[in-house]
Design the sequence.
């Protein structure tokens, strides 16, 4: 496997994505959604008070990206991270193009690596777009007021911006874990419906389980729990154990899912 | 076991475009390919013939690294095709299996540009190569139309253009003219022939017997996953159990009666509609039959050896493979002899 070969595959996949309406719509939604949310909060009298930082959504612009982060963890991240990862492999089955791709000069390993990198890149781009747009929406629609953190301490706008950035960075590991899960389902089922839909269903199921009083040991291996690990960064003093645990769980999902997916693709007979 | 054939300028193994030995592929309890050998030399159009489900497409998939073989070895342009290493197709090898498929939301030109990006080669010449390939297959005018709007024939042409991008020295074509109109089929045949004339080895799988007969110098017949025979058309004709003669007599009905029960002679009404009989028999049996006709008062007015069409040969080989198995080179040694005769072309 060569870096040049992998980059060639990444280039091809990016070209294909840029020609697809789906990718543009997702990124446009990531960019515009937070502005619509912030504007809606400004015009309506009630605020999402049952959500972390929901009460402060009209008091500090930095509360907006944190509220969006809390909402996105429920359903948006599984969708954003699987919409490309869950389709990159199975779309070759849908179009019947595996034979076309694999009779060029790239090995299956290079094709796999290139596609996975593209999926991870798109997941990063979508999360980043949502984060940047949320911060921009908060700042432009609400303002740059200081933020009261979860311990009730007032933090300056500059510090708040750093904390918000770190909070969004914390969701990248579980986002990559979900992307890997989507890749596995896409490779194994050869169906884009399963590749995109099942991670979303799995995410919602895990979130629902977290709401009921089930065994803690089960809840701790759910990747969705990693989406809330940023809470420890907005307390005084900070606590990192959930973040470390969530990142470890995300890494385990990432490695196991990609290892199985790679094995399945390597052993697959194309067109048989 | 490696097939070795003396060739000028080095060993035969180095000179061969394709060398597959003992290839096996099993799906569940079914043998899709069983101990298949295939040897193709540069500059030769090599036909793969066989009925539906014979294993031709599976064999092409194995040779292109799309399907993992269970046993055997494959060398393409002198390089091992190792499925365990990802089955990367060596540079200079190209082709398509069944109907070529492309991304329907992209134009033909854009599809080829992306495929060229997946190939080795300088970036600077990509657009030129794509343009030349499109023009070679007659898609220059439709190059910027989305593939979703292409007909099956246009996709077939685009598949060939995608193969040409790799400047193939070994080209696999699976039913390349199946979806084309007669003019398009003629163009593709001419292109295939030209590529072989320029030194490329072309492996052509087709159900069109006349196409294979017209194009291919060497033919391999596959049935039920096994190579039944391989060699030149002329050599294959000699493998049949008996020669066929057209015969006209003074009394065809009496001639049929005389033939009934006679060992080594099969006589039936000719299928060409001109009347007369078709006699299958070796020389000795035929002599005895003609003498018997004379004794019975039946005059033989015409008796001529008929050149067997590839189709009749194919039907005989695949339809009665077991019956004539003893006469065919199904053993490894015999296959190597026919392979040797094939590569010696």
Sequence:
């Amino acid at each position: 496997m060569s870096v040049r070969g992998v980059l060639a595959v990444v280039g091809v996949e990016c070209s294909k994505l840029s020609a697809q309406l789906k990718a543009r719509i997702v990124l446009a939604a990531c960019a515009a959604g937070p502005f619509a949310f912030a504007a809606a909060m400004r015009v309506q009298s009630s605020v999402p008070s049952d959500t972390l930082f929901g009460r402060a959504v009209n008091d500090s612009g930095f509360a907006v990206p944190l509220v969006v982060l809390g909402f996105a963890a429920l359903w948006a991240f599984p969708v954003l991270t699987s919409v490309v990862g869950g389709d990159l492999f199975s779309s070759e089955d849908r179009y019947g193009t595996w034979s076309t791709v694999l009779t060029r000069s790239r090995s299956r390993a290079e094709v796999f690596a290139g596609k996975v990198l593209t999926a991870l890149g798109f997941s990063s781009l979508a999360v980043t777009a949502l984060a940047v747009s949320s911060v921009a929406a908060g700042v432009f629609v609400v303002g740059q007021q200081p933020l009261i953190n979860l311990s009730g301490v007032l933090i300056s706008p500059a510090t708040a911006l750093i904390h918000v950035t770190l909070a969004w960075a914390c969701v990248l590991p579980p986002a990559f874990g979900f992307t890997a899960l989507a890749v596995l389902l896409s490779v194994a089922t050869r169906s884009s419906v399963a590749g995109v839909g099942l991670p979303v269903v799995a995410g919602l199921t895990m979130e629902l389980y977290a709401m009921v009083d089930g065994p803690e040991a089960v809840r701790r291996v759910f990747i969705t729990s990693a989406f809330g690990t940023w809470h420890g960064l907005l307390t005084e003093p900070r606590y990192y154990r959930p973040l470390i645990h969530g990142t470890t769980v995300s890494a385990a999902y990432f490695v196991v899912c990609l290892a199985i997916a790679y094995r399945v693709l390597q052993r697959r007979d194309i067109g048989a | 076991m490696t097939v070795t054939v003396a060739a000028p300028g080095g060993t035969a193994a180095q000179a061969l475009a394709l060398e597959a030995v003992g290839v096996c592929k099993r799906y569940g309890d079914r043998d899709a390919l069983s101990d298949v050998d295939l040897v193709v030399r540069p500059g030769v159009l090599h036909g793969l013939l066989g009925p539906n489900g014979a294993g031709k497409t599976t064999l092409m998939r194995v040779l292109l690294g799309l399907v993992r073989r269970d046993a055997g070895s494959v060398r393409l342009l002198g390089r091992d095709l190792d499925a365990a290493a990802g089955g990367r197709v060596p540079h200079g090898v190209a082709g398509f299996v069944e109907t070529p498929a492309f991304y329907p939301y992209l134009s033909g030109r854009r599809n080829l540009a992306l495929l060229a990006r997946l190939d080795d080669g300088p970036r600077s010449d990509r657009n030129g190569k794509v343009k030349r390939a499109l023009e070679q297959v007659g898609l220059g005018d439709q190059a910027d139309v989305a593939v979703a709007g292409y007909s099956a024939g246009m996709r077939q042409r685009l598949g060939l253009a995608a193969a040409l991008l790799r400047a193939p020295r070994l080209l696999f074509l699976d039913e390349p003219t199946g979806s084309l109109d007669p003019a398009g089929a003629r163009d593709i045949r001419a292109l295939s022939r030209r590529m072989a004339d320029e030194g490329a080895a072309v492996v052509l799988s087709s159900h069109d017997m006349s196409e294979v007969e017209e194009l291919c110098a060497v033919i391999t017949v596959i049935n039920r996953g096994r190579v039944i025979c391989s060699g030149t058309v002329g050599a294959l004709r000699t493998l049949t159990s008996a020669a066929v003669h057209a015969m006209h007599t003074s009394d065809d009905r009496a001639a049929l009666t005389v033939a009934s029960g006679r060992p080594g002679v099969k006589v039936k009404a000719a299928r060409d509609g001109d009347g007369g009989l078709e006699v299958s028999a070796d020389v000795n049996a035929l002599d005895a039959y003609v003498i018997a006709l004379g004794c019975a008062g039946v005059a033989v007015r015409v008796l001529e050896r008929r050149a067997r069409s590839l189709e009749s040969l194919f039907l005989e080989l695949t339809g009665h493979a077991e019956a004539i198995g003893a006469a065919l080179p199904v053993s490894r040694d015999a296959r190597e002899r026919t392979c040797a005769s094939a590569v010696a072309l």
About this structure: The longest strand of chain B covers residues 30-40. Residues 1-14, 321-345 of chain B have pLDDT under 50 and may be disordered.
